[in-house]
Amino acid sequence: MTVTLRSLELAVPPTVLVQTEARDVFAAQPGLTRLGQRLVTTCFNSAAIDTRRTALAELSLSYRSDNPLFFDSASGNMLSPSTKTRNDIFAAEATKLFIESARKAVEACEGIGPEDITHVITVSCTGFFNPGPDYKVVRALGLNPSVQRFHLGFMGCYAAFPAMRAAKSFCEADPEAVVLVVTAELCSLHVRTSNDPDTIMGSSLFADGSAAAVITARDLPGNAPGIQLDHFETVLTPVGEESMAWNIGDEGFEMVLGTYVPHIIDDHIVGALEPLLSRDPSVSGLAYRDIEHWAIHPGGRSILDKVEAKLDLTEAQLVPARETLRNWGNMSSATVMFVLKHIMDQPFNGGNERICSMAFGPGLTVETGLFTRIGGPVNPAPTTAAELENTLVQAAAAAPEPAAVPAPAVV
Length: 411
Prior knowledge:
With about 400 residues, this protein is α+β, with helices and mostly antiparallel strands. The chain has a domain at about 225-400: Thiolase/Chalcone synthase (Peroxisomal Thiolase, Chain A, domain 1). It is about 35% helix and about 25% strand. It has helices at about 20-25, 35-45, 85-110, 135-140, 160-175, 195-205, 260-275, 300-310, 320-330, 335-345, 385-400, and strands spanning about 5-10, 15-20, 50-55, 70, 75-80, 120-125, 150-155, 180-185, 210-215, 225-235, 245-250, 250-255, 295, 355-360, 365-375. A nine-stranded mixed β-sheet has the order 7-6-8-9-1-10-15-14-13, with helices on both faces. The chain has a two-stranded antiparallel sheet with strand order 2-3. It has a two-stranded antiparallel sheet with strand order 4-5. A hairpin with a 2-residue loop joins strand 11 (about 245-250) and strand 12.
């Protein structure tokens, strides 16, 4: 049975974070040591990010508040609201993104309406509330109240994979199932000023965003781009439990993102891919660069650099991940879905274009997926590998920049 991701849509909040301006604000915070200031400058400059999005409108330069919670624009100081304050904002603002991306995904899926959805899986690690986002999506989209609902919480950056894997299992168990997977993260709720290197690293990377997909085994009309979900695997590396973690503190959630993480990935990525690729004779034994597309979770620039070098991938194969990082930052579990969307929107050359995808999270956990890109208008295929790489690089260069709002943000 073939299970296919039939539509994939994105949603982001309107406030834009400009990386250079955010750097200057964080570097000017009182209480930073000289080393802390140098770390801020280094982390923000080397992140390979231009812009990010945040649900916190008060971080905009033009926003004024008599009772600021996160940023006092008059003094230029970052503030430290409680975890409850942050979570209350999550409940309100994340709900908007869950609903927006979910509605767009259902509307974009030809042959599917709200009445066809049988399962809803929601994903987030940046806040909690109940009735949760799964409930909110069912009510807002007018889904059948008997829809089966599931929420994957607090798993981290790799959680889109367990969600898609569960959706595939539901569809294999019931060929008429239609599963709506929605992930939304408000990582910016948990940024704060600190001299701690992990906290500084998180402040330089994390952002807000949402993605939703409709997944089904039904034979639907049309020729819209889609992604066939072929295989999934999970691997725990033998080291790294202390290098990546996500804890709840009194002043927000606390990210542990050790500088050794890229080295762990470098040492263990080949072994993590082996169980996945060995499941499919058509890719087992191939050089990694001979797999057409690579949807890598851009946890940070150094992670992408390690993956590209270790697997000997081409510059073009990392464009979807690097462009996602540059334009949107690291949105935790939603990010790899943005990368997959980038690949779906590329010119389609026909045939069986394979996608190898992976994400990394606490544990250290490596989640991988092997997919096949299908559908969409077919363009003439480049005749050589060099022409293909040049086509992808040109497509990335010609892609429109993410829409900005008139008033940029500083943090």
